[in-house]
TrEMBL record:
InterPro entries: FAD-bd_PCMH, FAD-bd_PCMH-like_sf, FAD-bd_PCMH_sub2, FAD-linked_Oxase-like_C, Oxid_FAD_bind_N
Organism: Variovorax paradoxus
Name this polypeptide is given: FAD-binding protein
Statement: the UniProt record of this protein carries the keyword Flavoprotein: yes
Entry keywords, A to Z: FAD, Flavoprotein
GO molecular function, one term: FAD binding
GO BP term, pick one: lactate catabolic process
Gene3D superfamilies on file: 3.30.465.10
One Pfam family in the UniProt entry: FAD_binding_4
Domain FAD-binding PCMH-type, first and last residues per copy: 45-218
Source species, domain of life: Bacteria
Length: 458
């Protein structure tokens, strides 16, 4: 008697012309992201992987995969380049990883806005916008490999957020084109606030095909590292630079000692034990920048013009946001990190307070990215480095932050509601989930109120 054909085998038989990946090692690699930044997630996700990966290149191929999976109850986990940090692309129930990187065209660029397919890499999208004198408003440090859909599904802010706020701020994403997960998939255009009901939900409530995003004027950016021997002077300089209305800027980052000692590729420019402020300002703003440096007693240890950056193909952007964590982990793999938010207007005071509480012994190292919040107020987001000891101590460190009114977006959880969402999802987001994923097949297990189902509905 012939053995029964599994749901996964049926998919491969039904759609033989698609780019299926079945090699076990490649499937394992494509079932993971940078969740290894967290020792907690390493433990939780170590045995989780997809059954198969598929890399469609057209909307018709995507539709065929989605319809075939829906008819068989096979879970789908949507993936970009896997540069996220929460295990978003790690299936908890097997099934199919839908790798969107082959669906990657820039559709058009117009004054102030561009539209592209979800799988396009952000660096490639900016290559299309820069000839028009425009750039993305917000790009993560992983812009060379991260995809537009991945940024929307799992990203928060990035370089440029000092001007335009996080990606979720109104006006940054204008619209999306999304596909429902059904036997007969439906494609719908969502605009404005309705589109944002799929943002930062790890691909759990709809498959985004295209995004229309707002652009910013491009400038030739001067990249600098300014060093200090005093924590508070460095912090006040970073805050004054972030607030300076006449200085055109794209990013301001603050690294308390000993973080700079973990940035090996920049060691020649960073005295041991220094506090460092990294900045990207328009070249025309350099005189004003230098005035601030002098007023705060800093020293410029690194300076590269836009032309020099382009020639070297090395940018300080790749030392900001969670790239800082990546560089530090290469030096000390026992480190992990936090994600925190400070109260606008009190952020400097709070940072100093937390440094005194947790930074004195080097257990928590202060890394800040200056950003406008959704209300337009300047503040900073923390991506503090933590010397990991136990999960219990990590929870205690997060509790101490919360007790001092510092918001924590827990990066050591694999449930949407426990992380950035910070609680139950609002009714309008749940309504989108029911509309676009009525069978609960998208990334099952990542939303608390939807049960995990294995391939075939088991």
């Amino acid at each position: 008697m012939n053995a029964p054909v599994s749901a996964i085998e049926q998919l491969l038989l039904e759609l033989p012309d698609l780019d299926w990946i079945t090699d076990e090692s490649r499937v394992t690699r494509l079932s993971s992201d940078f969740s290894w930044f967290s020792p907690v997630l390493v433990r939780q996700l170590k045995d989780k992987r997809a059954d198969v990966v598929v890399r469609p290149r057209t909307e018709e191929e995507i539709r065929a995969v989605v319809g075939a999976c829906a008819r068989r109850g096979v879970p789908i986990t949507i993936r970009g380049s896997g540069t996220g940090n929460y295990g978003q692309t790690t299936p908890l129930a097997g099934g199919v990883v839908l790798d969107m990187t082959g669906y990657n065209s820039c559709l058009w660029v117009r004054p102030g806005v561009a539209r592209a397919q979800a799988g396009i890499r952000l660096g490639e999208l900016e290559k299309q916008t820069r000839p028009t004198g425009q750039e993305m408003r917000c790009v993560p440090s992983t812009y060379r490999s991260a995809t537009l859909g991945g940024l929307f599904g799992g990203g928060f802010g990035g370089v440029g957020s000092i001007n335009y706020g996080p990606l979720g701020a109104p006006g940054n994403v204008i619209g999306i084109r999304a596909m429902s997960i059904e036997a007969e998939p439906q494609v719908v255009e969502l605009r404005g606030a309705e589109a944002m009901r799929m943002h930062h939900l790890w691909g759990t409530n709809g498959l985004v095909l295209e995004l229309e995003i707002a652009l910013a004027p491009a400038h030739p950016w001067l990249e600098t590292l300014v060093t200090f021997d005093d924590f508070e002077r460095a912090l006040h300089f970073a805050d004054k630079l972030a607030h300076a209305p006449g200085i055109v800027k794209r990013g301001v980052s603050f690294f308390a000692a000993p973080i700079s000692d973990h940035l090996a590729q920049l060691a020649a420019h960073l005295p041991k034990g220094c506090h460092t402020v990294l900045s990207l300002v328009a070249e025309s703003s350099e005189p004003a920048l230098l005035q601030l440096v002098e007023a705060h007693g800093g020293s410029v240890g690194y300076r590269k013009t836009a032309a020099e950056v382009q020639k070297s193909n090395r940018t300080l952007m790749e030392f900001t946001w969670n790239h800082t964590t990546l560089h530090a982990l290469k030096i000390d793999p026992t480190l992990t990190y936090l994600q925190s938010g400070f109260v606008p207007g009190r952020h400097v005071e709070q940072v100093i307070e937390m440094e005194k509480l947790l930074g004195a012994n080097g257990e928590v190292m202060m890394h800040l990215e200056f950003i406008r919040n959704v209300a337009g107020l300047m503040t900073c987001s923390g991506l503090q480095l933590v010397r990991f000891s136990t999960e219990e101590r990590l929870q205690e460190i997060m509790r101490i932050h919360r007790e001092h009114n510092v918001h924590i977006n827990n990066p050591h959880v694999n449930i949407v509601e426990d992380g950035k969402a910070g609680g139950p999802l609002p009714p309008e987001v749940i309504a989108v989930k029911k509309r676009f994923d009525p069978m609960g097949l998208l990334n099952p297990g990542k939303l608390r109120d939807w049960p995990v189902k294995g391939a075939g509905g088991a």
